Structures are given as structure tokens and as C-alpha cells.
Amino acid sequence: MPAEIRITRPCPAPLTERQEARRRRILHASAQLACRGGFDAVQMREVAESSQVALGTLYRYFPSKVHLLVATMHDQLERMRGTLRAKPPAGATASERVTETLLRAFRALRREPRLADAMVRALTFADSGVTAEVERVHRQTTAIILEAMGQDADPTDEQLSAIRVIEHTWHSALITWLAGRASTAQVETDVATACRLIDLTRA
């Protein structure tokens, strides 16, 4: 049998200042449209018009609406991370601080439920073609949790496993809440319960 041939994508070149400004306009337009009308309101042509870029240019940055909305989620998490650094969560234990962090994020999503629904739906619909963008969201979420924990050293495998369970619980809780199958109180309780795993791990 012939040897398997693996095709790897070259790392993209860093964006210039002008390209980064254009990308930020696109993400802003995506978030604004989602806030007004949810997932269905984010149409690529309208995003292009709102961000003042050519439609072809938009597709070079984001090949599909799902790519765009997952990137929008990463951008929202990045903003949240900056807010948390300016005002760190309170709590005597790591689990209390992570709980406070995720509940603050949940309160922010509750203020913009259509945006929340659009981003979560995109993350749920994402297939293997959106792996890079989904992985960026995962890394950002993990980094936010580690910072809330006050984790200076590299996390143990046990800690990373606990964080994955917390992220799965968080994502599932958001889906059920957005679908009207879970109350705000249920989401908060489930997230707090999952976060207690952190205090059971060995640093």
C-alpha cells in the first residue's frame, strides 16, 4: 500500500494593522446583526455591507457564517477575559472563583440572548471544517478558567479533565437554557456543581 500522504495547511501570515481593523469591523457587524435577529439575521452579504468590505473579502476572512459566528464567540470571550483581568472574580477557593467567572459570563449572555443563541448554534453546527476556530474558542475558555483558578504552573491531567467536564456542562446548560428547557436557577446550580470538581483535583 502506498504511504499515507498528509496535507498540512501553512500557518497564516500575521494580519497587517489594516487587515486587523477590517477583521474587527466584520466581527462587530456580526455581533450587531446577531443581537438584533439571532442566527438567521447574520447573512454574509449584510455583514459585508455593515462592515464596509467586499463580499469576496469577507469570505477570504471567514469561509462561512458558522466560521464567522464561532470567531465572534472567540472575540466575545476575549473581551470578557479582559474584563475579568480588570476585575478578577472573588472567592476563597478555586471552584468559587471559576463559578463566579462563569456566572458573570452567563449574566452577560442573558443580556443579549439572540447573540448568545447565534454563537451557541454556530458552535453546535460546526463540522470538521471549522476545527481551527472551535479549538480557539476551547483554548480561550480554558485560559479563562485557569486564570480564575489562579493556576500559575502547568495544569495536571486531572485538572484539565475537570475543566473539560466544566466546559461540557457549561455548553450543555446554555443549550438547554436557550431552548427554554432549563431555568436560570438550574443553569447556575449545574455550573456551580461542575465547578466543585476543581477542588477535588490535585494541583
From TrEMBL:
Key words, A-Z: DNA-binding
Segments forming domain HTH tetR-type: 20-80
InterPro entries: Homeodomain-like_sf (IPR009057), HTH-type_TetR-like_transc_reg (IPR050109), HTH_TetR (IPR001647), KstR_C (IPR041642)
Organism domain of life: Bacteria
Species the sequence originates in: Streptomyces similanensis
Family matches, as Pfam families: TetR_C_20, TetR_N
Name this polypeptide is given: TetR family transcriptional regulator
Matching PANTHER family: HTH-TYPE TRANSCRIPTIONAL REGULATOR RUTR, HTH-TYPE TRANSCRIPTIONAL REPRESSOR KSTR
DNA-binding residues (ranges): 43-62
Keyword DNA-binding: yes
The keyword Ribonucleoprotein is annotated on this UniProt entry: no
